[in-house]
Amino acid sequence: MAGEPVESFYEVARKIRRYSNKRVKIDFLSKEGQEGSVTFEAGDVGELITGKAFMGTVIPFRPLERLYKGSGPIDSISMGLQTSKKYLIQAYLTLKQFFQGEMSPKNFIGPVGIVAASYKIVSEAPLINYVYFLGLISTFIAVVNFLPVLPFDGGHIVFLFVEKLKGSPVSEKVQEKFLYVGWIIIGGFFLYLVWQDVFRIVKGVFI
Fold first, then answer.
1. Are 22 and 75 in contact (CB under 8 A)?
2. Which of 69, 133, 145, 157 is the most exposed place for a label (fewest CB within 10 A)?
């Protein structure tokens, strides 16, 4: 870029922050002698780097890989806890953006999508990637389970809290009504995700 050498995508990202919402052209020459150029529209790069190429070719950067290995059992447990914490925060922020209308439900996958994505990960990536994927899915399910809606545990906790405040249990009829409404919402969203998963597979997204 402008005659400045770069070694990775992250260096490119830092440099194109100066060209927010402008057309950017990058000429590159790899260490293997491959050369070319790519032109794209840089998005709002205040925090994130987004771009859409409309001519040229893909810049031949290798994927960034980092090895995480604990020095012992205690260090490994600590790394596991940190990863779990990261997944919890990620799941919470995802749901927060969804309920605030900042994220489309099209960004979610359902059970069919999870199976298809699992097959793709297992067949194309190291097994550890699938372990991380299962951890992410499990954490997200755990966070969803604490939503204040019946029949989730979070809904039961809300009713227990109300019972504590009023000194008596909420009537069964009221609980049944909330339970039916909860099942309708969950069932409707579940069917939407299944339909969306099947549509993606038909379109070849998971293949």
1. no
2. 69
Give me 18's structure tokens: 């100066």
Average pLDDT over residues 4-16: 68
pLDDT value of position 53: 43
Mean pLDDT of the chain: 80
Two structure tokens written together for 49 = 């780097």
Q: What is the pLDDT of residue 205?
A: 65
Q: Residue 151, preceding bond cis, omega within 30 degrees?
A: yes
- Is residue 117 pLDDT above 60, yes or no? yes
Domain extents in the chain: 9-56, 73-203
Each residue's pLDDT tens digit, 82-111: 888 888 998 898 898 888 888 888 888 899
Are 20 and 26 in contact by the 8 Å Cβ rule? The answer is: no
pTM beyond 0.70: no
Residues 120, 206: contact at Cβ < 8 Å?
A: yes
CB 31, CB 87: distance < 8 Å:
no
Instruction: Using DSSP bridges, classify how beta strands 51-56 and 35-42 pair: parallel, antiparallel or unpaired.
Output: antiparallel
